[in-house]
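subagent[fold] <- orchestrator: predict structure for attached chain, return tokens only, no commentary.
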Amino acid sequence: MFKKGFKLTVLVLALVMLFSLVGCGQTSGSGAKEAGDYKMVLLLPGPINDQSWNATNYAGLVKSNETLGTKMEYVENVQAADFESTFRNYAERGYDLIMAAGTQFDEAANKVAESYPETTFCVVNGMVSSGPNVAPILPKEYEASYIAALMAGEVTENGHFATIGGFPNKLMEQLLDVYEKVAVDIAKERGISDAKAVRAYANSWDDVALGKQMAETMIDNGADVLFVYANQVGLGSIQAAKEKGVKFIGFSGDQTTIDPNTVVGSVVFDFETFYVWAVEKYLNGTLEGNMVHEAGIAENIFKPIYTDNISKEIQDKVAAGMEKASKGEIDFASMFANK
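subagent[fold] -> orchestrator:
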């Protein structure tokens, strides 16, 4: 009886230890979720081949997947009427992180987020965070337009600048305010006393024909340098600039590849760096809600691209201006028309 009881006790203890080890292994596995195990998706308002905003964001997604091992998916051409339903669709399917490219997604993201506390909603260029699971990331686009203005102010011949924005939201107004202020000031410093900037809004992100028409009118009225931030609308504006022989400063993506003799320089948003930074913050638990996460020149998010039409002297001036900005020596807020 003693031997039999002893054997039974040993067997029970062995089984307890085995189940304990198995249990520990399961806990460890479930707690150490791999990057590729997270369900992630990026919503884009336009196509990934627009050579502007959508292409830039898509490049960030690709880099994140390559660098971090994530498997983020994407959806192109999500229309305003479908913002909420698209957010809900992926949240219902248990996605961990839903990113959306553009301020225009702010309202829908914050509204839908209330119903899905386990999902993190991250709007790129977002300005609103009304919940613990809403964590917008915001490139300081006015710092990027500052770089563009450093080029524009030097390449203009008559000091007449034309700018076109997609929609007149706060971020768009701020970046155009900075661009116009800096470009005009530089032109005046060069002796062009009547330097000025004219602004218009397309109220569209994708009307290529409208962009061409607007640009033609502005050029006919004297503009010799164009700056457009309106996704595909900008492609039409570049075509108008090419046909009429004026200069264009590209923005967001490298638009010099379209026509380097027209788009003499571009400011590229390094969203590869930006996305890796943001997604890594999500993976390590520091992409917190109830706040906006910002990055700019100091974080190497923006990079100037030059063609042969931008001299070494101008490039050096741009570099010097960027250095001042990275040190906090530029008072951007003072340039905003509506402070």
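orchestrator: received. Logging for downstream: The two ends are 89 Å apart (CA to CA). The domain at 141-269+300-335 is CATH 3.40.50.2300 (Rossmann fold).
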